[in-house]
Amino acid sequence: MSESTHLVVEVETQVPWPLSEQDATAFTDKVLSAAANHLGISGEVSVLFVDDATIHELNRTYRSVDRPTDVLSFAMQEGDEFPDLDGPTMLGDIVVSIDKAKEQADAYGHSLERELAFLLVHGFLHLNGYDHQDEQSEQEMFGLQEEILVELGLVRSESK
């Protein structure tokens, strides 16, 4: 873990932000900074909040999956080494469907705040090489997600 982490977060909302008590940028920065600190990672992340139609199109275009999903991650650090450039390392983009987040929060019986934080952390972990292709990697990734959400005070038993 690095001694000091610094995360630059850029947020765009293409749909109305659903958490009236919290600003989209402040909420996203808080959640992703907690994840970055937990992992000892610095860099820059762009986050886009969209509706199901938009994420459906992105999922079809980039993953050949013809349905909406809850979160997509587009990592910039995959493959070959990137040269060291001035400024923060661009980790990638996270796209979150507000529609899916609302649907899943209702289905899982927890707050929309927790669901949005879960999706942000999930996307951030994907940007940093974590995946859930097999049982061991899934346990590691989901364990990290839960640790970060607990640090944020967003536990599963939270009521709506």
Automatic annotation (TrEMBL):
Cofactor binding comment, as recorded: Binds 1 zinc ion.
Question: Is 4Fe-4S a UniProt keyword of this protein?
Answer: no
UniProt similarity note:
Belongs to the endoribonuclease YbeY family.
Q: What is its EC number?
A: 3.1.-.-
Lineage, broadest ranks: Bacteria, Bacillati, Bacillota, Bacilli, Bacillales
Its annotated function is as follows: Single strand-specific metallo-endoribonuclease involved in late-stage 70S ribosome quality control and in maturation of the 3' terminus of the 16S rRNA.
Protein's gene: ybeY
Identify the cofactor(s): Zn(2+)
Task: Name where it mostly resides.
Answer: cytoplasm
- Family matches, as InterPro entries: MetalPrtase_cat_dom_sf_prd, YbeY, YbeY_CS
Where is it localised? Cytoplasm
- What is this protein's name? Endoribonuclease YbeY
* Keywords tagged on the record: Cytoplasm, Endonuclease, Hydrolase, Metal-binding, Nuclease, Ribosome biogenesis, rRNA processing, Zinc
Q: Where does Zn(2+) bind?
A: 122, 126, 132
| PANTHER family linked to this entry | ENDORIBONUCLEASE YBEY, CHLOROPLASTIC (PTHR46986)
